[in-house]
Amino acid sequence: MKKHLLATAALTALALTLAGCAGTDTETAAASGDSADPTTLIIAEPVHGVGYLPLYAAMAEGYFEDEGLNIELTTLTGGAHVTAVLSGDAWAFIGGPESGAIANAKGAELVTVAGVVNKANIYWTAKEGVDIDTDDLAASLKGKRIAIGRHGGSPEIISLYLLKELGLDPSDVEITNNDQSGSELALIQADKVDIAVTTEPVLGQGITEGVWTEPILNIPAELGDFAYSSIVLDKKVTEEDPDTVRAFNRALAKGMEFVLGDEEGTRALAVTEFPTMNADVIDATIDRAYADELWTGVDISDEGLQLDLDVSREAGLLVDDGKVTVETLLDRSFME
Description:
Layout lengths: L11 H7 L7 H7 L6 E7 L7 H8 L2 H4 L2 E7 L4 H8 L4 E4 L1 H9 L4 E10 L3 E4 L10 H5 L3 E3 L6 H12 L8 E3 L6 H7 L5 E4 L3 H7 L8 E2 H5 L1 E10 H6 L1 H20 L1 H11 L5 H13 L10 H13 L11 H4 L7
Helix pairs in contact: 3-13, 3-14, 10-15, 14-15
């Protein structure tokens, strides 16, 4: 099997030099204990987030090493995680499958091969002192200033959809697109916005510091089964090197099993992954993740992915005339 040698733009010359080198088949090497150099795969993430703990667990526990893989994470904001895959600078990205759908509507051929977060892991919260009636959100939100995440990102897409579900037009509120995840905290503190669309651990940080309230809208509960964060890569990779995709998914599945079966171990991992967060924030974050059942396994249901596509179309971000379907976007053959 041909070894993947993927690099960032700064390592392009090295990648070109080594691209022709042959490596030991990943599956065979893992089974035989072969000491050949592992295959390095670069995974682009849009944010370093609590929802991705199954991936981090697979890395920390050595499950990828067992499969002959070396995983390198790169955090790329503003949609650059998708661009990195499209340009070949990353093997895959972890993020919303609708990002792959939007790219496919423009001519790309990306596929989703595994799920990581199967609930919409975002929350609406209000600045302390802002009067919100959760029984009449539409009236309470009218005229409010809302930080809604980067343009084209999952938080924006879902929030635009939910505004419409509440009977509101985007023009009924004042929307701020904040490209940097986590910057919504600073926007609230500076009194630039009244409402923030956020995720953990930033949500817990803002609550602990008294910046904003407990969620005024729990979107994991609101939407239910939803393909929120998945492993997405170029379809050519699945066709040319299926063994590596299978090896990756086997390791990821073990990471998922770790998170689902070892809550204390997951808390300890979160402390390592988010060293600047205090213990109270970490505990509240992990408690909420389990309570909202963010992790259910690496499989993705047709219904969960279809809802993601429907929401993206309704929000106006996926314009494809029905071109992208569950069947074209999802490759379940690797979800053993």
